[in-house]
Amino acid sequence: MRAQSPFARTLRSLMGHPSVVIGGTLVGLICLMAVFAPILGTIDPNLNSTSTRLKPPGFEGEMKVYTDEGRVKIPVTYRMGSDNLGRDVYSRVVYGARISLVVGIAVAAISISLGMFIGLIAGYFRLLDSVIMRIMDGLMAIPAILLAIAVVSVFNAGMLSVIIAIVVPEVPRVVRLVRSIVLSIREEPYVEAAITAGTRVPTLLVRHVLPNTVAPLIVQGTFIVASAIIIEAILSFLGLGVPPDEVPTWGNIMGIARENFQLHPYQVFFPGVILAVTVLAVNMLGDGLRDTLDPRFAKRGA
Hints:
Elements: H1 6-15, H2 18-35, H3 37-40, E1 59-67, E2 70-78, H4 89-124, H5 126-140, H6 144-152, H7 159-185, H8 189-196, H9 201-209, H10 214-237, H11 250-257, H12 266-293, H13 295-301
Antiparallel strand pairs: 1-2
Helix pairs in contact: 2-4, 2-12, 4-5, 4-7, 4-10, 5-7, 6-7, 7-10, 8-9, 10-11, 10-12, 11-12, 12-13
């Protein structure tokens, strides 16, 4: 019988893990919702009409909109109701998936790139280790959401400022992870042999050290995505994220709806449920990847 390649064995293990299958399926569906938002959404998420304000879910009516050609009536069905400006909550929730996923993926990519570079330097060069880690410890001592609020307040409101604000508290966690891996690997015989053979430091790090960080960083990346989505929602809820009149996000949808929560709870309920399902799905995917890719957890489950 032909032996399976390591990639095939890993893929088979992933496909057999319930958390990976369920979490990955849900994440895939949410990504499809974001990609096909123009098709799934009923109308423009920023289109408003005072004649259809605060309508309940399932309401069918006509939006009275003023255009260059004059007053136009648009038939619409509010599947999730309408907000205080008459905008379709369903369309805003569907389009809101785009910002949440873009922010989550961008934060994970930037945090892992910066954290990996800094962690490799801190773990390999002992003279720089103490200085770098004291800075990282100082950043980690501040709660992530408070640090994000402090950073975003320096910049103008927008998606770029939100991404920068979330990256700052996430980088130290990646640095500590990569540093711990480098510290355990640099004493290995094959690394010492490469050093004795005169291998240059950049080549040594890329060829012998960096490959050992890939699996842990993939797992860490999923948790960063989930954390970034939550922090982005909090910032937008507080009015510090993407302006609600420009692009809908799950956070600013709930932020606008909090004024009418007691009489119209559906405005908070629907985006809140989608946000919770998304974070749960990403965390389930991360747990499954950790159990499969991390040898320590794999041995515990054996």
